Every structure is written in C-alpha cells, then in structure tokens.
C-alpha cells in the first residue's frame, strides 16, 4: 500500500492538548490503524454479502415461498437497506459519531446473522421439508415468518449504520492537511474497494457453493462467524482510532439558510458581499472555514443584515431562522453544487445495472464448458471476471501508474478526481458497445450454427466494466468524501448508495418501457425471454447512446463545478487542470 502499510503519517493536533481552537490533540495514526479498519471491513463484507447473496434461493428452498413472494420480500429488504444509510448517516453526523454508529450497527448485523443461521439450524424455525415429488410443501407459519423478518430487520439496521460510516471512518484516520495524509486517503479508497470486490468474489463462489451444495446451516454460520471476527477486529483497534465528534445537525443549519433566504427574497444583495454579509468569526473545530463564492447567489440573502435582524453580544444572530452566517450559506452551496455531478453519476450506474442482469441471460445461452471438460461455469458466477479485473487493476494503478502520473501532472492522485470519474464513464460506454457487438455475434452463431458461442467471449466486456468501476466508483467515493463538509461525510457515503437505488428503479422502468414499446403490434421484442428471438444488441446500443449523452452532461457539470473552498476568482481546477 502507498506510503507503507505500517507507516505512521504526520501528526496533527485536533483533540487532546490545546489547539488553535481550544480543542485537545490526538495523533493521526494513518496506516497504523488500517489493519483494524480494513480487517473489520473485509470480515464485515464477507459476512454481509455471504448472508444476503443467496437469500432468494434460501426463501424458495427452505421456507418454500413461491418465487413472486420471495422476490417481493427480497426487493423490499434490498430497497430498505439502500435507503436506511441516509438515516444512519444523519444519526452519525448529528448525534453519535461514526465510531459509535459502526459499533452499534456491527452488533446489530451480527445478531441478525446469528438469528438467520438459527432459522436454518433449528427445525422449529423453518417449515418442514417437502415430501417426495414436492406434493406436500407447507410455507412458514406466522411465528417462523416473524423470526425471519426480525433477522432481516436487524441486518437492515446494521446496513444503515455500517454502509455510510465505514468508508469515511477509515479516511478519518489520515491527516487531510498533509501531503502524505491526502495520498493515504486516496490510497485507502482504492484498497477499500479492492477488499469489497474480493469479498464479493468469495461470496459468489465458495460461500454460495457451501449453502447450495453442503448445508444451509453451515453456509449461513460461516458469514455469521466472519461478522463476529469483524466486531472483534473493530473493537481491538479502538485505541488507535481518531474519533471525529459530531457538532450538531448540519441539516438544521441548511434548513435555516433556505428559510432565511426565502424570507428575504425581496431583499437586494449588497455590492460587496465579502465585506457586508454576516460573517462572524468561525469557531468550529470540525468544519473548515469556507470563503464566499458567487454561485447560487439567492442563498446569500440569508446572510444579508437588515433592520429587522438583531445580533447578540456574543456575535450570534438572535433569530437563526432569519439571519445566517456566510459559513452556513456556503455549506448549503456545497450541497447544491454536488447535485449536478451526482445526477450524472446516477446515469452512469444504469449500464452497469443492465449488464449485471443481462450478462447472466447471455451466459445461459452460451457454451459454458471449460475446454473439453464437462464442468460448466455457473451463469451467475461470470461476474467474478468483473471483480477479478478490478482486484488486479487497483494495486497496479495505486502502486505503479499513479506515481508516474504524479510526476507528469503534479497532482497527488495522478489525475483529478473528476477526470478519474470521466475516464470510468468513457470505459463504460466502450464496454456497453463491446457487449452489443458480442451479443450480435452470439445471436448470429445461435441462429446459423449448430453449436453455441463459447461463454468466454463474454469475458472482455466483463473486464471492461470492472475497469470502469475501478476508475469511476472509487473516484466518486473519494469525490463525495472530499467535497462534502466535514460534518456531512457519512451523508456523502449514503448519497452514493442512494444513487445506486435510484438507478435501479430507473433501470427497471427503462426495461419495462422497452419491453412494451418494442413488442407492440406483434413486432420483435428486444428483450424477449429467449435472447435468440430478441435484439439485446440493439438494447445495449441504446444504453450506450444514453450513456454518451450523459457523458456530455457530465463534462458540462464537471467544468462548471467549483471545488469546496475555492474563493471567487479562483479557477475550479478539480477537472481540467493537474496541479492544485
């Protein structure tokens, strides 16, 4: 890893002695705390993904649910687990802090996994096995279903606290004000995603194999055990952690700015806002002082001092819902500045979501044998090629390519974060186009030749999508962490997950529309159940076209974007330029 795994980064006083703001100081341990942070996250991912990846099969085979009921239940569970991180981020950034939130959520996840394991191990907690020929299959009783739902509830609580906090908590261990600390943060994001893909690979192969072919009890006990190790690893490293304490609700402050600006919508802005707006001394020990910017000028009205506004002797506004500080206004501007870039990244997820679904169907209609052997690669395991590419590429990029790019561009990350996201979007367009070409080739062989196409033809497109994720999704994680205010960094991680959730809904809507429109009046349905009768290649090309338009939109947003902390007159160097 960059800077050496055991190397302690430069120290900065933020808590513990006395700092400039009157706070005590602590030491940033940097990579010294990473064995505990990354170990905890790796075990947690192995446990969580290993538990949830095969739940649809578990519900239909052990609980004897019909496919529609099982799919509906899991859609609700997955949808909820993508939404609860927003609430978890709010609680973390406002009340508990990331350490306490992760601790509580980890225990909740462990209890959920243990309870789910018991539903398989204890005969009374699941329906009796079906009799011969499945003639008599009884579904779960109300009490059995209650235990199952409560286990899912605990897992959802755990996901709501862990998902938005574990990434920023790891980044909190590095000093963002030193060069080595900033490099450490960038390297941590790379390795974080690397461990995530390794966990997915193991879950998609070994753990699912144990669950499906050996024993559900053992297959669910393994993830629960791994989650237990995750908790132990996390708590053992407690003395090494930097624990950033919350400073109250950032959402209340943002609401005050919006309300105050609306109340003063008829007020004219001053000619010299930097000098005339309400800008008292900044006392926060957590959030960096932000300079005034000239974007979203409407919100500046919240900081205009009028005859109706009163200021206390302490320098604070008497009515914070009528008069806000420039700092409060700029935090709101930071949030609204991120929305265009975030929206363009939502569209980026759609090709990934579509391909992740339809590559399985493509694999099912290919020759999945390895050479002349009788072994067939499971259709659902082809995603491993995507993960394998990402896992191999990240260390190469982090250790070899970034240092060389750094010499050329002078940028700490080799290229800017938005440039990295843009590269990922371009690769996803290329991957989708390649997918269309390979699908056309597969379909032509299926219709005109006696033997189907080899499934290994699918590997290039999977590798390209893995490479795309290595650039774009890791870049987004780092971008949101850096550009959100310090007291909203758990929200930053939740925003990424929210983007995934929205893209999933958008993908479902797009599939429904294409399915209905192309199959109208007896015409060929692009998304027919039998891909040989459909035109999945044209669907892929349509997705590539949408992604290309989205890339143009992303370029516009990226060039317009001004990095947090850039004052008026400063060029927004986060996209086009190298040195900052």
Automatic annotation (TrEMBL):
> Which protein, by its recorded name, is this?
Protein NRT1/ PTR FAMILY 2.11
Record's bilayer topology term: Multi-pass membrane protein
Q: Which residues cross the membrane?
A: 68-90, 102-122, 142-162, 191-210, 216-236, 377-397, 417-436, 456-474, 494-517, 538-561
Query: Where is this protein found?
Result: Membrane
Give the Gene Ontology MF terms in alphabetical order.
transmembrane transporter activity
Could you tell me the keywords of this UniProt record?
Membrane, Transmembrane, Transmembrane helix
Q: What family does the entry list? A: Belongs to the major facilitator superfamily. Proton-dependent oligopeptide transporter (POT/PTR) (TC 2.A.17) family.
What cellular component terms from Gene Ontology apply here? Answer: membrane
Q: Which domain of life is it from?
A: Eukaryota
Please tell me whether the keyword Nucleotidyltransferase is annotated for this protein: no
* Lineage of source species: Eukaryota, Viridiplantae, Streptophyta, Embryophyta, Tracheophyta
Question: Is the Transmembrane keyword given for this protein?
Answer: yes
Q: What is its main location?
A: membrane
InterPro entries the UniProt entry points to = MFS_trans_sf, POT_fam
């Amino acid at each position: 890893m960059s800077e050496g795994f055991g190397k302690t980064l430069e120290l900065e006083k933020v808590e513990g002695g006395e700092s400039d703001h009157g706070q005590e100081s602590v030491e940033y341990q940097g990579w010294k705390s990473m064995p505990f942070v990354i170990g905890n996250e790796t075990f947690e991912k192995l446990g969580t993904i290993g538990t949830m990846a095969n739940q649809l099969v578990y519900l239909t085979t052990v609980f004897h649910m019909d496919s529609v009921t099982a799919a509906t239940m899991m859609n609700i569970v997955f949808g909820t687990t993508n939404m609860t991180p927003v609430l978890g981020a709010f609680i973390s950034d406002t009340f508990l802090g990331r350490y306490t939130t992760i601790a509580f959520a980890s225990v909740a996840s462990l209890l959920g996994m243990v309870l789910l394991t018991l539903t398989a191990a204890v005969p009374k907690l699941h329906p009796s096995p079906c009799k011969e020929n499945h003639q008599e299959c009884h579904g779960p009783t109300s009490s059995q279903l209650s235990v199952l739902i409560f286990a899912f509830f605990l897992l959802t609580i755990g996901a709501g606290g862990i998902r938005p906090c574990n990434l920023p908590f790891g980044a909190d261990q590095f000093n963002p004000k030193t060069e080595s600390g900033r490099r450490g943060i960038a390297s941590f994001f790379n390795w974080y995603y690397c461990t995530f893909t390794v966990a997915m690979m193991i879950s998609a192969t070994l753990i699912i194999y144990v669950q499906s072919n050996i024993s559900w009890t053992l297959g669910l006990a393994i993830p629960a055990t791994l989650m237990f190790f995750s908790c132990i690893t996390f708590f053992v490293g407690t003395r090494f952690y930097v624990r950033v304490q919350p400073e109250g609700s950032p959402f209340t402050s943002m609401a005050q700015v919006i309300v105050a600006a609306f109340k003063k919508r008829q007020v004219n802005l001053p000619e010299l806002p930097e000098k005339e707006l309400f800008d008292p001394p900044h006392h926060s020990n957590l959030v960096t002082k932000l300079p005034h910017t000239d974007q979203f000028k409407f919100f500046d009205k919240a900081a205009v001092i009028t005859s109706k506004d009163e200021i206390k002797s302490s320098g604070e506004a008497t009515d914070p819902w009528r008069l806000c500080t420039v700092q409060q206004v700029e935090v709101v501007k930071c949030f609204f500045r991120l929305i265009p870039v975030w929206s363009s990244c939502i569209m980026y997820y759609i090709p990934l979501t579509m391909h992740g679904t339809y590559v399985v169907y493509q694999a099912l209609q290919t020759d999945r044998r390895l050479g002349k052997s009788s072994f067939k690669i499971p259709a659902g395991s082809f995603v491993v090629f995507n993960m394998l590419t990402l896992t191999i590429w990240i260390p190469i990029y982090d250790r070899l390519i970034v240092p060389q790019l750094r010499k050329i561009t002078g940028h700490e990350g080799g290229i800017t974060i938005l440039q990295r996201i843009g590269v990922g979007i371009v690769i996803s367009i290329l991957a989708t186009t390649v997918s269309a070409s390979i699908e056309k080739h597969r379909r032509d062989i299926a219709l005109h030749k006696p033997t189907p196409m080899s499934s290994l033809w699918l590997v290039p497109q999977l590798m390209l999508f893995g490479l795309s994720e290595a650039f774009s999704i890791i870049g987004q994680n780092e971008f949101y962490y850096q550009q959100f205010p310090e007291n909203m960094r758990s929200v930053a991680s939740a925003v990424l997950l929210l983007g995934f959730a929205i893209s999933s809904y958008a993908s479902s809507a797009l599939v429904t529309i294409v399915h209905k429109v192309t199959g109208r009046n007896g015409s060929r349905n692009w998304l027919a159940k039998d891909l040989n009768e459909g035109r999945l290649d044209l669907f892929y090309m349509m997705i590539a076209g949408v992604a290309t338009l989205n890339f143009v939109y992303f370029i516009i947003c990226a060039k317009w974007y001004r990095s947090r902390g850039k004052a008026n007159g400063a060029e927004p160097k986060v996209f086009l330029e190298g040195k900052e």
